[in-house]
Each structure stands twice: as structure tokens, then as C-alpha cells.
Known about the structure:
The complex is a heterodimer.
Chain A lengths: L1 H14 L5 H21 L4 H12 L2 H12 L2 H19 L1 H30 L10 E10 L2 E5 L3 H10 L3 E16 L2 E10 L3 H5 L5 E2 L14 E4 L1 H8 L2 H4 L3 E4 L2 E8 L12 E4 L17 E6 L5 H18 L1 H4 L3 E6 H41 L1 H9 L4 H37 L14 H28 L2 H6 L8 H38 L9 E7 L5 H17 L4 E7 L8 E7 L12 E8 L3 H5 L3 E4 L13 E5 H7 L9 E4 L7 E7 L14 E5 L9 E8 L7 H11 L5 E5 H8 L1 H35 L1 H9 L4 H30 L15 H26 L4 H7 L1
Parallel strand pairs in A: 4-9, 6-8, 15-20, 17-19
Antiparallel strand pairs in A: 1-2, 1-10, 1-11, 3-4, 3-7, 3-10, 5-8, 6-9, 7-8, 12-21, 12-22, 13-21, 14-15, 14-18, 16-19, 17-20, 18-19
Helix pairs in contact in A: 2-3, 5-15, 6-13, 6-15, 6-16, 7-11, 13-16, 13-18, 13-24, 15-16, 18-24, 18-26, 18-27, 19-22, 24-26, 24-27, 25-28, 26-27
Chain B lengths: L1 H9 L7 H13 L2 E2 H11 L11 H10 L3 E7 L5 E7 L1 H29 L1
Helix pairs in contact in B: 2-4, 2-5
Amino acid sequence: MAQLRRLLLRLYNVVFPARSEPDLARELASHLTLMEEDLQRHGMTSDEARLAARRAFGGVEQTKEHHRDTRSFVWLDDVRRDVAYALRTARRSPGFALLGVAVLALGIGANTAVFSVVNTVLLKPLPYQDPDRIVTLTTDLVRDVGPIRGNIADADFQDWRSQATTFEAMAYFQGGATAVVVGEQAEYTRLTRVSDDFFRVFGVRPIVGRLFGPEELRSGPPSAAIVSSIFAQSHFGGSGQAIGRTIRLFNRPLSIVGVTPSGFAFPDGTEIWTPVPLPNAANPLLRIGLNFRAVGRLKSGLSLEQAQSEMATIAGRLEQQYPDTNTGTRVVVMRLHERMVGDVRLMLYMLLAAVGLVLLIACTNLATLLLARATARAQEISVRAALGASRGRIVRQMLIEGLVQGLAAGTAGLGLAFGSTKTLVAFIPGNVPRLDEIAIDQRVLFFTLLVSLISSVLLALAPAFHASQVQLENGLRQGGTRSVAGGRTRRVREALVVVQLALAVVLLAGGGLLIRSFVALQNVALGFEPQRVLVIDATVATADPRQNASLFFRDLMAEMSKVPGVVATGATMAAPGRVDSTGAYWIDHVPQPSEMRTGSSNVNSIVAPGTFAALGIPLVRGREFDDRDVRDAPMTAIVNETLARRALPGQDVIGHTIVCAFDTFEQMTIVGVVGDVRQAGPADESRPECYMPYLQHFYNRATLSVVIRTTTDPMLLSETVRRKARELAPTVPVRFTTLDALTAQNVAQPRFRALLIGEFAAVALVLAVIGVFGVMAYVVSQRRAEIGLRVALGATPAQIIWLLLGRGLAVIGIGLTAGLLGAALTTRYLGSLLFEIKPTDPLTYISVAGLLAMTSLVALYVPARRATKIDPLVALRCE
Amino acid sequence: MASAQRAQKDRVELLQGTLDLIVLRALATMGPQHAYALAARLEQVGKHALTLNQGTLYPALVRLEQSGWIKGTWQTTENNREAKYYAITKAGRRAIEKQTERWRRLAGLVDKLLVSEGA
Lengths: 879, 119
């Protein structure tokens, strides 16, 4: 209690240091008077008494100093004084101070915003119970097209689950955008079919209602659903009201039995979960189709490696037990978080590094400015030193000035980050996970503070060094306006410019590589023409797609082809970029069950007549699908060039038959060959593809994408389509996008990277050039008198310019060389982000060096040129 | 000169914190006092055995006052001079017992250590 009281009073005295001084002085005076009078009473004269009293008392000033030490925290008081001094200095040249704080605030704000993304996506644990114990299980197998990773076969999962002992729970799931009907309203939502234990893996319990019961998990169509709290809120007005309500899925009713806690939307923002029964493990076909994803929760205390080695053992057993289907199939166990962020980690850290470099350049730039000012302040510093300020005290003064600036900038930067994180997030491509969770939390605040402190020190270092070099007499004698620590200060400035140039080269090289890579991506022919194509997803919610679905799509296409501006119409199971089904194919041969593994793998799609024209995929040979390819006619297929080439090298595939492991093992006659399509964007290789007519296949045909090529902006047609669709079938939900938008998704990340790093590099370029300009202007001002003299003695402008350029050219040369070396060392980390461009691409390096050299030369030339205009009379008189 | 040096040597340097306790005790027994009177009293009690510039009292006084154990008020002396009189507070009286106890324990401990070293 007494200690706390004392602490508070001492702090009070730090803030108001002078409050106790008059009282103390009065008390000390009274003390001395009393003693003197006392001594006089004992017979001393007044002079003797005064001296004796002083002696007995000790030093009055020392007593006051001790008193101050005791009643306050003197070092804190010094800091307070330095801060006040720094603020006064800032007030004296507010423009300069504001510029510094603004530049730094932008840098810190950008760093904070990028770090808040890194923090949420990479560093924050997943918002599930014991997130470290949640893992994904994937199969890893080598097929003829290369390694296939990711999905699992449901029958395999059944064996994993019954044999594994390292897992507390294991579940598999499958899903995507699905059409459901709530009340009268048809809409697309994200629906996931999940097996028993799915929610246990995440440690999720429903906030109202219950999980799926055993009877709901038995085979047959699902009868129950669990919905997210957001879905319950938006559709039924609350979680409690949702229980017992009905959703219709493919025209079958699902009763809502539970609502998940808010924030749970695994996977990919799922709103509805329905039960999927465990499969019949005896069916060998269920070991070929890789249609599910799996997650598991490790038992407490067990490591990932233990689980991995157990799963390897189980996979080995399955290989022996089912050699036809499982040979070469391995299981990979990986933490869920790692699986989610593995692909974007490099990109995000690259962004953080780039934005950090920008801040470093900004700090260096400001440091040169501060250094210039420190030179101008040499007189002030000399006076302070003359008045007894120690060198340490002056250096601390400089550091505190930096700190004040850094913290002010940090606060402003935090404000900027609050404002700009949303914008940044909007720019980030959608396949970066967890973007909705991004917020500024404690860790981000700590990061901002740390960055601010580091920037402060970086800022203050050069001026502090300079201040410590100030020679007292020089500073006072020369009036301190010029060349105090002349040569040394200039070298520090030049070193700072070298650093700026080098860092700018690194950033420009990185940005240049990413931009060139992006341009290369854009120049790849995709195999289709994405411009002016409307893509309409529609799902016919019927229990038996054979009856109505095809009628709906046929009628919609017929209606739309009559609309003015429509060039071609078609319908496809998977528009380019949305591979929906991969399988295996056999030419002129119907495979036996034991031959399942012998097929080569391919992409399957079903399409309506007109689709190739609508998508702009060229027909190479043979014919398109037409009204001959209907339900009871002989089965036909069209393949792409890659499949044709691989299946029968050097021969014409037309007329041969093909069997695709899709929905039937019947032979189909190949009637045409079409061009290749890069499905997953320009960086993807073309894969063998088999197209089948939509009227002859029924798998998945309730959901098709109608594609319409137009002569104008395709989105203008969307209302017409919506109206026609509603006339044909009021409960069919439709949604729209364009083929351009779908294609852009594939290059969204490279575009984002190139754009952002390019912007950072541009900022770095501007800052570096300002730095070069600054140092040259400084040199000119330093040598004014000398130049004046030379001009007076008859030097030509060209001679003056060369005289001044020499040193500047050396600085630029060193900066560029160091930067190119730095770039060569760092850009190799970009390797996996680049497409068709090597990290050491000479063209990029040469262009970057050239660009910086050119702009720096201009920045050198302008002040040098101005120097030739110096009037010798004025310059010499100044001296 | 030599005897003066010896006298200097025989004086006791005050341990950190002991002055606070001495001042507190003096105020408890003597009632409110100003700094000069306190200093004179301490010199008298210590029979000049204490090294004490009178000024050294002030840090102790401010420490005690900030801890809330004494309180200073301006008053006039009998000779009609102004002086700041310090009085012990209730908290100060409570503190004496605690601090004395602490001091005894410490002194006892030092004593014991010195004895065992000597043996």
C-alpha cells in the first residue's frame, strides 16, 4: 500500500517535476535560518553562524538533487524532457516532421496490413478444438498422367477407419455448390455430405438440436440436415426456429435436426451438411473412384509421424489385399492447417518481405534527410555540448527524436492498416483461405510496435552517429551551417543511397520477374475463346433426371438461340476451368473388372450440341454432336487432340470405339476430334479429354452449365435468361458468371502477385531516385564556393558537370552491382511462383538495371546542371 | 589531526533504510518536529557517533511522506519563524512495529553470521 502510494507520487513528480521545488527551497531556507539563530544564541557572530550552518547542513544543491532523485524517477524525467524537446523541434519545422511521419506511416501501415493477413492465414491456429490434432488424409498415387493427390476412395476409407488406432475420430466428405429449395425459393448453397464422426473430428457440437442419429446414417437418400447458424438466421430467423423445418434437395425433403455454432463452415463455407452412409467395402469400383476427402482427429499425445507410419502400414496391407486397385496407392497424413495454407505460404511471406523492403528503403531515405538536417543542426548540438550535455546524452536525444517520430508514424500506420486491410483483402484472390477471419489482434499490434521501434532506431542511427562526431569548436566556429563532419557525413549519406539503390534493384527484379511471368501466362493460348460468353449454372431439382432435366436444358437452349445477339448456345457438365470428373479410358476394348487399373486417365465431360462453337473450341476432324446423338441412338463420343494422339499415335481415331470409366462401360464410337483446352489455366498441361452427348448420359445431368456466346456484354443477357428459365420451370435456380471471370480465377494469384510487388517496386524506385537526387543536391550545396571559384577561373559547364557526376556515378554503380547480386541471391525463392521465366532471367535483370541507371542519371544530372548556373560572385561572397 | 581521523573512523555509516526508521521513531516519541530539530535530536542521541549531514535527512523525509507515514505542514516556531513540521500518521505508527521487527530480524541475522564467521 505504502509502496504503491509512493510509486504513484513519484510518477506524478515525473509528469510535474517542478511542483515541489518552491516548497523544498522554502524548507531548506527555513532550516538554515533556524540553525543560524540557534548558533547565534550560543554566541557566534552572524557570519560565523552562517558558515557553521552551511557546513553542518552539507551541500544545498546536492540535497536538492537527492530530493529530486528520491521523490521522482530522474531518468524518466530526462526522457520526458527529451520527448518535449523532440516535439518542440518538430513544431519548429512542421512540414519536415509531417513528411517524415507520413512516409513512415505509409510504410508501417502497409506492413501492418500485410502482416495482419499473414497472421490470420498462417500464424493463427484454426478456430477448432485442439486444431493441432486435426489432420487430412489423402491418397497419393502415380498414374500414367503423373501423380494424383488429394481425393480418396470411399471403400479404402472404410478399411482405414476400422484398422487405425492412432485416431480418435475419422470422417470423409464430399460436396459443393448445390441447388436446394427452402419454402418456395430455389437457390444455390454450399452443401457437404459428411460421414458419421465428421463433427467429432472438429470437436463441434450443435448449439441447438443434435447430430445425425444411426438411422439417418443408414444407406439410402438422406432425410436429415444440419445447417450453419448463418443459414438458420437468414432463412428461419434464428437457430431455434430452424429445428424441424424442411429443406428440399433434389425434390426430397430433409428435416433440419441441428444448427452448428457460428464460425463453423468447414469445408469452404458449407451451409448445409447431410449424412452420407459408409460404403460397401466389398465393391471394387469404390476403390477406383477418388470422390471423397477425409479428415481425422489424432488421439491426444500422439504425433503426426505415428499416425503417418500406421497409415503406411494399413495402405501396404490394402495393396496386398486388393492388388488390382490399390497397387502403388499411398496415404499421406498432413495437418489440416498445413493443407489449407501450404500453397499460399510462399506468396504471403514474399509479400511480407517485399513490403518490409519498401519500409527499409523508406527508413534509409528518411535517414538521409534527417542526416542533412543533423548537419544543419550542428550548431545547436555544439551549443548543447558546450553547456555540458555529454555525448551519450546527445545521442540519446537523437534516438528519442527518432522514437517520437517512429511511434507517431506507428499510430498513424495502425489507423491506415485498420482502414486498408479490407481493401487489401478484397484484392487477394479467393483461393487464399481464412480471409473472412482477418482482423487486427494483439499479435498484429505487437508487430506494429516492433516495426515502429525498429524504424525509429534505423532513422536515428545515422544522425546519432553524426551528432556524436560533432567537434565542439568546429561547430561553434563555423556557425554550423556547413561541412562539420564533412567527409565522413558524406560517406554515410552515400552509403545510405547505395543501400536504397540495392534494395530497389532487388524489389524491381522480383517485380519484373513476376510481371514477365504473368505476361507469359496471359500469352498462352487457352484452346478456347473466353470473351463474351455467358455461363449459366442451373440445377433441375427432380428425383429422376431422365424425365425432366434434359427437356429443361433443351428448351432453354432453343429459346436463347432465338434471342438477338446470341451467336451460339450449348450446355456442358464442366465449363473450362471446372474439371468435374476424371476417369480412365480404353480404346476398342471393354475392360474386365480386373483390368480397372489398366486404363489411361482422362477428363470426362458431357455436352450438348453447339457447345464447342459457344466455347470457341475448334473442331479438328469429324463432326460435332447433333440431333442424331439422342437417347436410344448408337452411343458416340468426341475426343480432344491429346487423347487422339496418345491413344492411337499416327492413326485416325475416328470410327474407333472408346470406353470411359464414367457412368457406363458401353463402347462409344468416336465421331470427332476437337482442340485441346488448358483446364486449370495457362500453367496447366492439356490433358486427354472425352466429351459425350448429354442426351445419352445421365450421371450428374441435373446440373449443367448453359454457355451462350454473344456479340455484346454477356451479362446483359442474364435477365432474359432468368425470365425464360422461370417460364420453363419456376423452381430451377440459376446463377451467372462469364467465361472471362472463370478464366481470370486461374490467373488471379499471379495477377495479384505481379500487381502488388510491381507497385512496391515502383515505390522503391521513386524513393531510391529521390535518395540519389538528395545526395547529389547535397554535394552541390557543399561545393558551391569551389564551383563558383572554378567558374570564375573559366571552367566550362561540361567540366563542372563531369566533376560532380564522378562520385555520383560511382555510388550508382556500387548500388546497382550490390542490388543485382542481392537479386540473384533472393529471387531464386520465387522459382515456384514463376511461369516460363527463370529467376535469373537476364532480360529482366538488364531492364531493371537499365531503368534504375537511367532514372538515377537524370536525378544526378538535374542538380549538377543547376550547379553550372551558380553565379561565382554570389557563391564566393557567401563564403 | 590524527585523533580527528580516528574519530571519523569510529563514526557509523548509516545503513540504507535505517535512517527512515530512526526518523519515524523520533517523531513517534517527540511529537511533530521540523527538520532542524530532528537533525539536532539525532546528533544528540547518537552522541556525534553518526555521520549525518543534516541535508541527508531530506530524502528520508520525502520517502516517508510519499509512503504516507508522516505528514508535513507549515507552522510557526516559538520564535515566530516559519518551519515545516512533520507529524507521524496512523499508518506511520503501524509501520514502526513492522519496520522495527524487520530491523531486529536483520540485525540478529547479521549478528549470527558474524559470530559463526568469528568462531
